[in-house]
Every structure is written in C-alpha cells, then in structure tokens.
Amino acid sequence: MTYKALHVEEIDGKFTKKMKQLSLEKLDTNDVLIRVKYSALNFKDALSATGNKGITREFPHTPGIDASGVVERSSSERFQIGDEVIVTSFDLGMNTNGAFSEYISVPKEWVIPLPKTLTLKEAVSIGTAGLTSAIGTFKLMSNGQKEGDNILVTGSTGAVGSFSVKLLSHLGFKVTALSSKADKKEFLTSIGANEVVLKDEFETHAKRPLLKPKYDGALDVVGGEILENILKQVSPEGSVAICGLVGSPQLNTTVFPFILRGVNLLGINSAEMDSEHRVTLWNMLANEWKIDLSNIVHEHSLEELPKLIDEMLAGNSTGRAVIKID
Ligand SMILES: NC(=O)c1ccc[n+]([C@@H]2O[C@H](COP(=O)([O-])OP(=O)(O)OC[C@H]3O[C@@H](n4cnc5c(N)ncnc54)[C@H](OP(=O)(O)O)[C@@H]3O)[C@@H](O)[C@H]2O)c1
C-alpha cells in the first residue's frame, strides 16, 4: 500500500520538494500508526524542507512537526484504533518522517489524546506555534509579568507572533506588536495589538548599553539586533522570553540590562519539554487559554506546501497555515 507525502530529496547537493507516493510498509515501524487529518506549517518545517542539516540530518525526508489525526494501528494499550490524537514536536518531522503526509508512525510517548474541547483542526491550528507561545507566556507570568503589563511581541504577523498577540491580549496584557509589514497594521490591531511598531522604527543603532525602558516584558522570535535592542528597553525586573532566530542566531549584548535592571532572559524549547508540563499547557490551551483562531488561520492542501514554504522563508507569511490532508 502507498501513501502521499511531501518528499524532500537531495540530488547533487541540491534539494527538491515534491509530492510523492511512498511505501506504507516502510513507514509503519513504530508503536502507533496515525492517519493524519491536519498538519500546519512552522518555520522549522520550512528549514527542513530546504535541506537545513541542523534540523534534518538525512534525506530523503518528509517534514511536518505538527499532526492531528486518527489512530489506525497501535501496539500500545493506551491507544485504540479510531482514537483522535495530537503529535507535535519531539523528533517528528526532524529526523523522523513528519506530518506533511497521509500517515505518520511514532513512538507512543509522543502521542497525546485530543482534549475533549478541541477539534482536530483546532488542535493543529494551535500546534507547535501555540504551544511555544503558551510556554513563553507561562514563563513570563511565572517570572512576575501580570495583567496590564505592556509586552512587546516580535515577528508579530508570523505563526508564533500572531498567536502570542492573541493569547497575551486574551489574558489582559497590553500588547505592542513589532512587525516588518507596514500593510498589516490593521490586521495586528484586529487580533489584539494595542500598538504596532514597525521594524524600521524600532531599529536603533545607539551604542549606549541601556535605553529608556519602554516595555515591561517581551516575547521574541527574531533574535539578533532586534533582541539586542529589546534588552536595552525592558523595565527593571522585566522578562524577555525567546524562541527564535528568523533575524539572526547571534546576540551581541552587554551584561548591563541584567545587572543594572535585573532583566530576565527566558529560553523556550518546545521540542524537548517534559510530557507532564506539555499536557498541562495543552489542557490550558484547550480551556481557559482557548482563543478563537479563525482570523489567523488559513487552510491549504498538501499540494500548496512548496509555495507556502518559499513564502515563509522570504519572511512573507502571515498567521498560521493549516494543511488539510484528505
Ligand atoms: N524554540 C522553540 O521551541 C520554537 C518553537 C516554534 C518556533 N520557533 C522559532 O520561532 C521563529 C518563528 O517561527 P514561526 O513559525 O512563527 O515563523 P513565521 O511564521 O515565518 O514567522 C516569523 C515572522 O518573523 C518576522 N521575520 C521574518 N524574517 C525576519 C527577519 N529577517 N528579521 C526580522 N523579522 C523577520 C516576520 O514577521 P513580521 O513581518 O511581522 O515582522 C515573520 O512573519 C523561528 O525561528 C522558529 O524556528 C522556536
């Protein structure tokens, strides 16, 4: 039997990404075989789909770190045929074939039962982007950020960014959205931003190690110079949660924000977080942190993925691309 998947191949050092029929027998070697109903596009998938060996060491490969679907075969008593489940992160889509596919085969520890208050589409609309945003928000709140605080969100039209704008706004924070897209100001306001700052206005080449504090905290997906400038402008005892590197993985800073203002830098690693905390956050996202994602989610087919991936890598994507797998 065969199944359809996005197949990324390396030929003479060049990478191609195409839909292909593959052998299900070769895939079905793990505890749980899942018929994928929905996936979603994350920045990590775009890197994997274009041959980034920091994400995926060996090709051919199928990317896709987020899946929701139905159990088709299980060697674990925890899961029965027909159960609706979610799989996000761990090694899915990195060095294990991922969810841009009609099927995935994964270890039982990676599988989470679908919370009763979510549909399969809602679960994947949250996915890694939502979980990452929830980890960042949880860390900011655990470190003292509270309702009414002004939190800066970077890459705010992207998947993690737009989810964060919505979630922080839902929780009563004042949100400043930083974006490179001047034509998306209205969109950002419509999803909960109180203020929108454009990237060009934010970039300061001031050499001073500290600037006037403007933000109580921040959630950053960009890194590089933007993060350097955020750290200079966070209020005393404020926190900055960081997850990304779309701008740059480099960070040039001084110790002054930390030793003169007591600023906290909080890392986010959604792929490796422990299962108990993961389930707790999923339950929060399914209940008290549940938000209406209809104005940030757009649905696509598997066949549209190559174009969506190129747009994402060019920094042109907005919101969360959910992939419906028929
Ligand atoms: N650590 C973790 O656990 C974890 C989990 C998920 C994602 N991430 C990371 O988080 C980052 C964002 O992921 P995503 O899925 O949200 O990606 P995305 O949907 O592509 O969003 C990224 C956004 O960043 C902005 N941007 C893009 N290129 C930029 C550049 N060169 N300089 C400044 N801003 C730029 C754009 O928003 P604007 O135009 O609005 O500025 C873009 O929409 C990635 O680095 C990803 O690897 C990490």
Relevant terms:
326 residues, alpha/beta, 10 helices, Rossmann fold, globular, six-stranded parallel β-sheet, 28% helix, single chain, binds NADP nicotinamide-adenine-dinucleotide phosphate, seven-stranded mixed β-sheet, Quinone Oxidoreductase, Chain A, domain 1
Question: Would you give an account of this structure?
Answer:
With 326 residues, the chain is an alpha/beta fold. The protein has 2 domains: 2-114 and 296-324, Quinone Oxidoreductase, Chain A, domain 1; 130-267, Rossmann fold, CATH 3.40.50.720. Helices cover 28% and strands 28% of the residues. The chain is built from 10 helices and 15 strands. It has helices spanning 24-27, 43-49, 120-142, 159-170, 185-190, 199-202, 224-232, 256-261, 275-286, 305-313; strands at 2-11, 14-23, 32-40, 66-74, 84-88, 103-106, 112-113, 150-153, 174-179, 195-198, 215-220, 234-242, 264-267, 297-301, 320-324. Strands 3, 4, 5, 6, 7, 14 and 15 form a 7-stranded mixed sheet that branches. Helix 7 links the parallel strand 11 (215-220) and strand 12. Helix 2 (43-49) packs across helix 10 (305-313) and helix 3 (120-142) crosses helix 4. The structure holds NADP nicotinamide-adenine-dinucleotide phosphate. The site of NADP nicotinamide-adenine-dinucleotide phosphate has 31 residues, from helix 2, helix 3 and helix 4. Residues 42-44, 128-129, 132, 155-161, 179-181, 199, 221-222, 243-247, 268-271, 312, 315, 317 line the site of NADP nicotinamide-adenine-dinucleotide phosphate.
